[in-house]
């Protein structure tokens, strides 16, 4: 007896879709505020002061008040010297008892005068020089204010997918090929 067996194996099909992740990260928004620096300048322009009062005074270029004062002092000194000379001459004339020739002596003194010649440099003092003025600089520092505004990332996910299906079902086919069949039971 001949039996032919045809067997077909089962086959399954697997279709897979891989998972996908897409992440988009938007840029951070920045707000920048700049505060400018400030500068304040307080100044008084320089002034040069030159005081030549003493130099002019020594050169004889006096103001009216100093001139009157100095002439009054000089006149007083001359007057006191003249009074002293007159008193001295009077005392000399009054001393006749000393048997002096007083009139001749006084005449000789009147004819002889001492004259002094001096050389002097003027002015002797230097002028007084001083400066006035200032410069004050006041800084107020500025700055920068930065504010960052973050955004959440956007995440897109496609999940994985697996599809399993039968491509071919299993089967067994048994076939009798022959002429002899035993039909007995």
Topology:
Elements: E1 3-8, E2 11-17, E3 20-24, E4 29-35, E5 38-51, H1 53-58, H2 64-94, H3 102-111, E6 128-140, E7 143-149, E8 154-158, E9 161-168, E10 171-176
Antiparallel strand pairs: 1-10, 2-9, 3-8, 4-7, 5-6
Description:
- The chain is built from three helices and ten strands; from the N terminus they run E-E-E-E-E-H-H-H-E-E-E-E-E.
- The protein has helices at residues 53-58, 64-94, 102-111; strands at 3-8, 11-17, 20-24, 29-35, 38-51, 128-140, 143-149, 154-158, 161-168, 171-176.
User: Can you write the helix and strand succession as a string?
Assistant: EEEEEHHHEEEEE
Large-scale geometry: rod-shaped
- Count of separate DSSP helical elements: 3
State the share of residues found in helices, binned by percent: 25-40%
Q: How is the main sheet built?
A: 2 strands, antiparallel
Proportion of residues in β-strands: 35-45%
Q: What radius of gyration results from the CA coordinates?
A: 68 Å
Distance between the termini: 17 Å
How many structural units, i.e. domains?
1
Contiguous runs where pLDDT drops below 50 for at least 5 residues: none
The count of β-strands is 10
- Mean pLDDT, to the nearest integer, reads 86
Secondary structure category: alpha+beta
Give the strand order of the largest sheet, numbering strands 1, 2, ... along the chain. 1-10
């Amino acid at each position: 007896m001949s039996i032919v067996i045809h067997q077909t194996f089962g086959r399954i099909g697997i279709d897979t879709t891989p998972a996908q992740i897409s992440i988009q990260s938007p840029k951070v928004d920045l707000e920048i505020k700049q505060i400018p620096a400030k500068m304040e300048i307080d100044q008084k322009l320089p002034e040069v002061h030159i005081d030549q009062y003493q130099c002019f005074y020594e050169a004889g270029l006096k103001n009216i008040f100093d001139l009157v004062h100095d002439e009054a002092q000089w006149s007083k000194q001359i007057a006191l010297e003249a009074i002293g000379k007159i008193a001295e001459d009077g005392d000399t004339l009054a001393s006749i008892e000393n048997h002096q020739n007083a009139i001749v002596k006084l005449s000789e003194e009147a004819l002889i005068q001492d004259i002094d010649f001096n050389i002097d440099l003027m002015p002797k003092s230097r002028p007084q020089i001083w400066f006035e003025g200032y410069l004050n600089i006041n800084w107020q520092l500025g700055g920068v204010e930065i504010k960052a505004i973050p955004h959440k990332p956007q995440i897109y996910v496609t999940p994985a997918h697996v599809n399993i299906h039968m491509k071919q079902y299993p089967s067994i086919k048994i076939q009798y090929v022959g002429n002899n069949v035993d039909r007995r039971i």
